[in-house]
Amino acid sequence: MSVFTLDVSEDSPKAIKDIYGSKFPYPFNKLIPPTQISNEEYHALDGISASGLKQARKDPKLYMKKRLLKRLPSPALEMGTALHEALLEPEVFQMSNYDLTPANKLKLEVMINNGKVMFDYIVNKTMNEYSLFVKDNGFIRKVRVDAYDPILGIIYDVKSTRYNSEKKFANDAYDLGYHLQSAFYLDTFKLAGLKASAFAFLCVPSETPNEPYPYQSDDNFIEDGRSEYTDVVSRILDYGETNEDVFFRQLSLPQWRLKQLQIVGE
Question: Whole-structure pTM over 0.90, yes or no?
């Protein structure tokens, strides 16, 4: 059952109404293998995804204008993409397809090896890089799952991370919106009638000693993510021409300075 009671109205963004009212090129509520839809094709399709939610969490205008925004190449992103392909689609992975420095190539080789050593028991038994599209009230959900175990109902997400410390990764996970991602994926799978009992991160550090570790999202992490992503989706659907202004965040003094001022005040 949907967590939303939203409907497409005249106030909803035109792009959302066009998506919902047009013929979608892929079936709904069905896991589609990567042989039928490439990663590039998936990202070109309209619909709200977890990465889009993270973007709209900062500012809905970033989400609505994402196709117009440009991004510089990122060595970290290039390595993360290569790691995903090497672990999840080894049959198509070729190191030569990636623009890496000799140092980053060596680093990636270590990360791939360690990821396979620690997580091959998972990714060899899962459905990897499958896409899923689900109609919800007023919009289309879309996910591209790294790995999914249909028997246990576990959704896995491979993360390349700079953190060797599990504690540091956990502290950063909230700021990066991983709680939204966990809840959104689980809810989308359930809406499609698929088993979804847990969401887990398979973390592969990019810094020595490069020792991978797994994390499972707990109930509090997921529930908070669900609460926040439903609010973000509502802001996306409510976005209109009147929201073209830049969204200003409040810039305040850091906590250490506020404490100093309190001491001075005393």
Answer: no
